[in-house]
Amino acid sequence: MLGYAKQKSDALGANATWIRSDVLETPSELDGTAELVYSGKGATCWMMDLDAWAAVVWRLLKPGGKFFFFEGHPLDSAWNEDSEKYELREGGTYFEASSIRGRGFPFEAAGRTEPEKPVELTSRVWTVGQTVTAVANVGMRVEHLEEFPEPFWDQFKHIPVGDMARLPHTFGLVATKE
Description:
single chain; alpha+beta; four-stranded mixed sheet; globular
């Protein structure tokens, strides 16, 4: 994916540096160099320490730099994906306070990516409040928070489109490093 990203940025003439790293181990020589940091599309479910993640975003940004975050809405984790209507899955709760082993999207995707390797993954569902609080606690000013009815991916194949549009399935956040 990094090779593909480099091809795209080169084709656009965009000055971009692509680095593969555990987000919590992002090289310190990048501190204060970013005008924009983007995170999302399934990233935070892998973070076991949201405060540490937000601190990395903060340290990468230049003063006045923007953080753009777009993610699947955590409420989706509460619903039964096989139902024809919004129905809580067994044990489903918006306030999932513990890590999850082996259920749902991240595990299925990892299994498809490298089917020959056993997958032992742990993910975590963070509420919108926990995410916004982590960003605010590191000193970023939240400028915009919005929820959207568009699905993050097509996990609710049996719920009619009109019903899907009644609840949020994604959310976005823009914050600035003061």
